[in-house]
Write a structure and sequence with these properties.
The protein is α+β, with helices and mostly antiparallel strands. The chain is built from 1 helix and 4 strands.
């Protein structure tokens, strides 16, 4: 897990060396869990970016970027 502040954004990167999120789904009709969808919805609400890369060393890489707002 890597968390960095870059300029006005917070960058979060989570990696593993497993089979990958999509490779873990055994049936073509199986959908991603509600947890990932909830994370994506919350990041969109914060005007952030969310991506999943499964070809990172045969595992998964999840990248989240959200703006940091001073109040």
């Amino acid at each position: 897990i890597e968390i960095l502040k870059k300029g006005k954004n917070l960058h979060i990167r989570v990696t593993d060396n497993g089979v990958g999120i999509m490779n873990n789904i055994t049936k073509p009709t199986t959908k991603l869990g509600i947890g990932i969808k909830n994370i994506e919805t919350r990041i969109n609400y914060l005007s952030g970016l969310f991506s999943i890369n499964q070809e990172y060393k045969n595992g998964s890489e999840i990248i989240i970027v959200v703006p940091i707002v001073k109040e």
